[in-house]
Write a structure and sequence with these properties.
Layout: H1 4-8, E1 26-28, E2 34-36, H2 37-47, E3 53-55, E4 62-64, H3 77-89, H4 98-102, E5 111-113, E6 119-120, H5 122-130, E7 139-141, H6 142-147, H7 151-156, E8 172-174, E9 179-181, H8 183-188, E10 195-196, H9 198-217, H10 220-308, H11 311-330, E11 340-346, E12 357-363, E13 368-374, E14 382-389, E15 392-398, E16 406-410, E17 416-421, E18 428-430, E19 437-441, E20 446-450, E21 456-461, E22 465-470, E23 476-480, E24 485-489, E25 495-500, E26 513-516, E27 522-526, E28 531-535, E29 541-545, E30 552-557, E31 563-567, E32 572-576, E33 582-585, E34 596-601, E35 607-611, E36 616-621
Antiparallel strand pairs: 1-2, 3-4, 5-6, 5-7, 8-9, 8-10, 11-12, 13-36, 14-15, 15-16, 16-17, 18-19, 19-20, 20-21, 22-23, 23-24, 24-25, 26-27, 27-28, 28-29, 30-31, 31-32, 32-33, 34-35, 35-36
Helix pairs in contact: 10-11
Length: 623
């Protein structure tokens, strides 16, 4: 039958958590966890060779290493004593008598002396009990030891020996030195110290430890409750995580289906556009085939008449043949429709947007580069915008030093005609009425009108003018430093009207770009909002274009009344319908575009493109 001691102390309590064997020279750490001396030495040598502290292998508390290393850690005498109890319990039958082994005799032990710790045969047991020095020792039969009934007796007879006189049991506790000592130590080294019996010294310490134990025990329910709460939280986390994964897969299936639907719709759109274009081409083919058949049949019939007909037959038929030949010779050949290509432009994904791509038809013939030249820019100078004055090209530049900003005039082959410093200029345009160069003077709060050599002809006040443009009537549209305000002036500088731009940013000062579109509509390119807004001549809002992650700059209108819009960051030109719908990309980086800043149409329908970064100006022939 197991005793209370045996039930409270298990063998796991006496096993090292590192080697999983019974302790060998157990060392107790400051966190109260115990390990073999050799196990700790191996742990520190392998993982913390130069450290002055190491983490407990069980609770990870940092343990300071004494100067002597692991050997300097405190021995766990309590664990060592408990191990002796379990060793006594595990004495098995047929073990040998310890005194007889000295005489090299192998007699079977039948009992064990708890005071000496020796296993004894029957003869030695009798002698042990008769000997005056050992007759008071507690000797128990081995069979009774194995039953576990004498655990308490074994424990009471265990002796703790003096660390100095190792064969002597400790008998006193020195209150000054706080160590256990034997009788010899008391007489030799501690005679003038207060020494008490261990039982008397341990009682107040038991009380202190007991009080500490109560303080700790009362925390166990709280900690266990917290542990339960954490387990619940972990289970809830795992449950919600699994639910989130399921929803992600569900959303994936939903989006995949939406993507398939969108792809199918785009394919249907491609096929519809293709069918429409094929129908036009088929119709044209039919017309050409019909005309070809008429021509060939008439030629064949006429040749037959000429080669094989009699004179009388020619005379009878010539009027009819003549009329038919003249009709075929004078009839117009059907027009060949403009060639086109069906293309798909994927759109880069943006968070929160369902994007896929755009199907468009593009002209087969691309614009052809006619000429190009580099503006004579200085360090820190960049192109702002361009304009046409007759057949000459004007270019405004920007510099952080306002005194270094210029306006150039070039002929189309790239030869510079003139230049002048334009002050705090943020952009320029050309008046269609008098051909004067109109530019903003931000510092002096004016709009200046000058010749190409910088000779000012007239000016009018305007608060903090930035970019500007002129419409077909010569009215000047100005974007002021008040970001939401756009003002329209007549040719004499009188204000016709003002309106607020629908910008999302009305606090930060930044540059917008103004252009005029079909029917003199006002085009506002807003790089901050990544969009283009269009207004009628009175400032009534018409539409917004923000497709293909555009970074808009200058714009112009081609002969078909489509809007050509520069896209700086994406190095492309967008072609929009007059109502702001995307049609196709006109030019790209492969055509020499490097952050295109502005576009301008020449009087003869050619396209001028100016790059911001490298100062290149390119002239293209549109098909």
């Amino acid at each position: 039958m197991a005793t209370a001691f045996e039930e409270s102390v298990t063998e796991n309590f006496l096993s090292c958590k590192i080697c999983l064997e019974q302790f060998s020279k157990p060392k107790v750490l400051s966190c109260l966890h115990t390990f073999c001396q050799k196990c700790l030495e191996g742990l520190v040598r392998q993982n913390y060779p130069e450290a002055k502290a190491f983490p407990c292998p069980e609770c990870r508390s940092m343990i300071d290493l004494p100067p002597e290393g692991i050997t300097g850690l405190k021995d766990n005498f309590f664990i060592a004593s408990l191990q002796d109890v379990f060793v006594s319990k595990k004495v098995v039958n047929n073990c040998h008598c310890d005194p007889c082994l000295i005489e090299e005799e192998t007699n079977i032990a039948v009992s064990r002396c708890l005071d000496c710790g020796d296993n004894l045969c029957q003869m030695c047991t009798t002698a042990h009990r008769r000997n005056k020095a050992s007759r008071s020792h507690k000797v128990l039969p081995i069979a009774e030891l194995e039953s576990g009934e004498f655990f308490d007796v074994i424990r009471s007879h265990q002796k703790i020996h003096c660390s100095v006189h190792q064969m002597e049991p400790v008998q006193y506790f020195c209150t000054k030195c706080q160590i256990l000592i034997c009788i010899h130590c008391k007489v030799i080294n501690h005679d003038d110290h207060r020494c008490v019996f261990p039982k008397d010294a341990a009682e107040p310490q038991r009380k202190i430890i007991s009080d500490c134990l109560e303080a700790i025990q009362c925390r166990i329910p709280t900690v266990n409750k917290g542990l339960s709460k954490l387990q619940e939280m972990k289970e809830n986390l795992q449950r919600t995580s699994a639910d989130a994964e399921n929803k992600i897969y569900e959303q994936e299936r939903y989006l995949m289906q939406k993507l398939k639907d969108r792809a199918k719709a785009s394919i249907d759109e491609v096929r519809a556009m293709t069918a429409k274009q094929e129908k036009q081409l088929d119709s044209a083919c039919d017309s050409f085939q019909l005309m070809s058949a008429c021509l060939e049949s008439s030629v064949h019939s006429t040749e037959q008449l000429l080669h094989h007909g009699k004179d009388e037959e020619v005379l009878q038929m010539y009027q009819q043949y003549e009329q038919r030949m003249k009709h075929l010779a004078e009839s117009s050949i059907p027009d060949i429709p403009a060639g086109c290509e069906v293309k798909f432009y994927p759109i880069e994904y943006r968070d929160g947007e369902e994007t896929f791509g755009t199907v468009v038809t593009e002209p087969t013939c691309k614009p052809q580069l006619l000429t190009m030249f580099k503006v004579d820019l200085k360090e820190g100078e960049t192109i702002v915008n361009t304009a046409m004055i007759g057949t000459d090209i004007t270019v405004s530049t920007f510099h952080t030093d306002a005194a270094k900003r210029r306006i150039f005039t070039y002929i189309q082959d790239g030869n510079k005609k003139c230049e002048f410093y334009s002050g705090d200029n943020r952009g320029h345009t050309i008046s269609p009425k008098d051909g004067l160069l109109i530019y903003s003077d931000f510092t002096n709060n004016k709009v200046q009108c000058s010749t190409t050599d910088g000779s000012v002809q007239k000016s009018w006040p305007c608060p903090k003018p930035r970019t500007l443009t002129a419409n077909s009537q010569g009215h000047v549209v100005v974007n002021t430093d008040l970001q939401e305000k756009i003002t329209v002036y007549d040719t004499d500088g009188q204000i016709l009207h003002s309106f607020k731009d629908k910008s999302q940013n009305t606090t930060t000062s930044y540059l917008k770009y103004l252009s005029t579109g079909p029917n003199d509509q006002i085009i506002v390119s807003d790089p901050n909002d990544n969009c283009v807004r269009m207004y009628d001549t009175k400032g009534k809002f018409k539409c917004t274009y923000s497709g293909h992650n555009i970074d808009p700059r200058g714009a112009c209108v081609n002969v078909d009344r489509d809007i050509i819009l520069s896209d700086s960051q994406n190095n492309t030109l967008h072609v929009l319908s007059p109502d702001g719908q995307f049609k196709y990309f006109l030019l790209g980086a492969d055509d020499g575009l490097n952050r295109p800043q502005d576009v301008t149409m020449t009087p003869d329908g050619q396209l001028l493109v100016a790059n911001y970064s490298d100062g290149m100006v390119m002239l293209f022939q549109l098909s």
